[in-house]
Amino acid sequence: MPLPADPVFPDAPAIAALSALDEPLPATGRPDAETAALLRDVAAPATVRSTGPDYFGFVIGGTLPAAREADHWVTDHDQCAVGHAGSPAAHALEARAAAWVLDALDLPRGGAVAFGTSATAGGLSCLTAARHALLHRLGWDFARHGLDGAPPLRLLVPETAHVTVLKAARILGFGLDRLARMPCDASGLVDPGRLPPLDDRAIVVLQAGEVNTGGFDPFAAVIPRARAAGAWVHVDGAFGLWARASALRPLTDGIEGADSWTVDGHKWLNTPYDGAMAIAREPRWLAEAMRAAAAYSEGQAGDQMHLTLEFSRRARGVPIWAALRSLGRAGVAEMVERHHRLARRIAAGLAAEGIAVLNAPVPLNQVLARCGTDAETTALVAAVQESGEAWFGPTLWQGRPAFRISVSNWQTREAHADALVALIGRLRP
Ligand SMILES: *Cc1c(COP(=O)(O)O)cnc(C)c1O
Questions:
Q1: What's residue 297's pLDDT?
Q2: 206: CA distance to ligand 1 center in Å?
C-alpha cells in the first residue's frame, strides 16, 4: 500500500525504476519472496494513490476496509462462483447483495442483479437483453435466428453518452453513424422537447450522472413516453445511481420506470475493482440473453453465470455485500451527501478564486470548471498533477478545455476539499 506521504501520482524516479521489471521470462521459477519484493519495492511506489482522500480524478472511489477484506476472502477461497453448485457460500452472499442493492436503490424488487466486471460489461449485457426483448415482441427469436434478417432496431443515446455506451453500441453492431443522438440542453442533459420519434423498435439510453457535470436526464418526462411507445429504456447510472440511496433521491425520480440499469460498485460505493451491477426489471430478458447452461453444468435459474457475460467467475457481489453491510442504509446516504456537500464547497472555493464553475449549482459530486484562457486551464491541471499533493484530470466541455474534480473517496472530508482549493489558488497561472 502506498503511504500517505507518497505523491498522489508517482514521481519520475519511481516511474523510471519500473525498468527493473523488464526481465526475460525466467527459465525456471523464482522464489515467491522475490516476486513479492518486486511488487512491494518496485511496483507499489509507482502506483497512483487513488485509494486516498486527495484523489479527485475521474470518479474512481477508494476501497472501504470491509470491502477490501471481503475481496481478500474472495481471493483466499478462490470460489468459482457460477452459482450454487460452484459455491454455496458465494451464491448466498451474492443473493443477499442483490436483494440489498435493489432495496438501497429502491428498484423493482423482482428484478435480476448480475454482478459483473464493470458498468461497461453491464451496459453491454443490458443492451443485449433489450435487443432480445424487443425482437421477441416483434416475433423474432434472436437467439436462434440472429441478426441477419431481423427487424431493424434503433439505439437512441444522449449526445453526451459515455464512451463505453458507444463501445457497447459498436460491439452490438448498431454502427456509430446510425445511432440516434438525442439532443441535449446546455447542461448536457437530454432535452425532452427534442426527442426523436419513439416506437417499439427503439432502445433508449439515459444517464444518471453525466461524467462532466454529474447531471441527471429528465427520467420522469422521458421514461413513461418511451415505455408507452413500446421502447426499452436503459439507464447508465455507473456512479450517479447511488444518489437514489440518499437525500439526493429526487434527482432520480422516475428512474424506477426503466427496464434496465447499470451501476458500479468500484466507483462511488468504494469497493475494489472489478465490481459492477447490471439490473433488469424482468429477469427473463437478461437470463435469455446471457444463459450459459451446459450439459455438465445446468445450474439453477438465478445463478450468476446465467445473468453475466462471465461463465467461470469471481464472486464480485461479495465486496458489494460487505460495503453495504459496513455502511448500512445511513452510511451510504451519508457518504453520498457528504461528497455532494464537499463538491459544492470546492465549487464555492473556486468561484471565490475567480475560477468559472461550469456546472453550478453543482448537482452531485462532480465539479466542472475552467480557469481563464484555455492555456491557463491546461497549465493549471498540469501543475496540480505535478504537485503530487492531489490529482484531477482535464476534459473538454462544449469544445473547450476544462477540468473535472470528482469527490468520490470514502475518506475525503472538509480538510481535503479545502486543501485542494488552496492548492489550486496557489498554482493557478
Ligand atoms: C465510468 C462510467 C462508465 C463505465 O463504467 P466502468 O465500470 O468503468 O466500465 C459508464 N458510464 C458512466 C457515466 C461512467 O461514469
A1: 67
A2: 13
